[in-house]
Design a protein that fits this description.
The protein has 269 residues and is α/β, with parallel strands linked by helices. It has 2 domains: 109 residues, Aldehyde Oxidoreductase, domain 3 (Alpha-Beta Complex), CATH 3.90.1170; 148 residues, Aldolase class I (TIM Barrel, Alpha-Beta Barrel). The chain contains 11 helices and 12 strands. It has a 6-stranded parallel β-sheet. Strands 3-5-1-12 form a 4-stranded antiparallel β-sheet, with helices on one face. The protein has a two-stranded antiparallel sheet with strand order 2-4.
């Protein structure tokens, strides 16, 4: 991923730095937080510079999952000036975005604090960057849902439009997949939830339901299977849903609607 990003940024080198900065110039720089956040991606940023030049010294001051504030120095660097300039944008692109994911995740984790509910991510990730974005979710205190379509069975509305009944979909899955594979079913009402549980679902997902409908299902399930809630859940609503006693809330926004944290590379010399 780093090599692809560097090639994208420097298909034929850095014609600015290569032509105006003395070849043997050495500089010191800092990675500076311009606003508060949760750190994720500091090791990725370090690896960017290592890919450009093994002689760059990268000293981490803050580590992934740590809280930082505006004005904090997250890392210090020393090395060839041109090499530092070549790695600046690519390193910050990873660091700012991953920290944005972690920071937003932390806000949702705090919104459900004191309950049994855990915050999950989804597969709504930037193509090619899923492993980094899901790692950033963990740095913010969230948990990873399935990484890919091969990991578990998740029967959703479009599957059911093609098959018909939840019970039939679960039956087919159980007959075909490896024993012990988790089978989750997305449901939209009480009857579907009841059918999924009685047909042997490992877990159910309540999609875009009112609090009243969710409570009815939670009260009936009584811990028989874990319950996940999804569907454009806001920070305010996350706390209300968690209070019902659900096990998980999945938030697609963690990896598709986060705000990158403002972090810069400042040259000291």
């Amino acid at each position: 991923m780093i090599e692809v990003a560097l090639k994208e940024d420097m298909p034929e080198g850095d014609i600015t730095s290569d032509n105006i900065i003395p070849q043997f110039s050495v500089s010191e720089a800092i990675v500076l937080a311009k606003e508060d956040g949760i750190l994720a991606g500091i090791d990725v940023a370090q690896r960017v510079f290592e890919k450009i030049s093994s002689s760059i010294v990268f000293k981490k001051i803050f580590y992934d999952s740590q809280i930082f504030q505006k004005g904090d120095i997250l890392a210090r660097l020393k090395g060839n000036s041109i090499s530092l300039l070549k790695g600046e944008r690519t390193a910050l692109n990873f660091l700012q975005r991953m920290s944005g994911v972690a920071t937003m995740t932390k806000e949702f984790v705090q919104a459900v604090e004191g309950t049994r509910t855990k915050i999950l991510d989804t597969r709504k990730t930037t193509p090619g960057l899923r492993i980094l974005e899901k790692y950033a979710v963990k740095m913010g205190g969230g948990l990873n849902h399935r990484f890919n379509l091969s990991e578990m069975v998740l029967i959703k509305d479009n599957h059911l439009k093609l098959i018909g009944r939840i019970s039939e979909a679960i039956k087919r899955a159980k007959e075909s997949v490896k024993a012990g594979t988790k089978i989750e079913v997305e449901v939209t009402n009480f009857n579907e939830a009841k059918e999924a549980v009685k047909s042997g679902a490992s877990m159910i997902m309540l999609d875009n339901m009112s609090l009243e409908k969710m409570k009815e299902i939670v009260d009936w399930v009584k811990g028989k299977v874990p319950i996940e809630v999804s569907g454009k859940v806001s920070l305010k609503k996350a706390g209300e849903i968690a209070a019902l006693g659900v096990d998980f809330i999945s938030i697609g926004a963690l990896t598709h609607s986060y705000k990158s944290v403002d972090i810069s590379l400042e040259f000291l010399s």
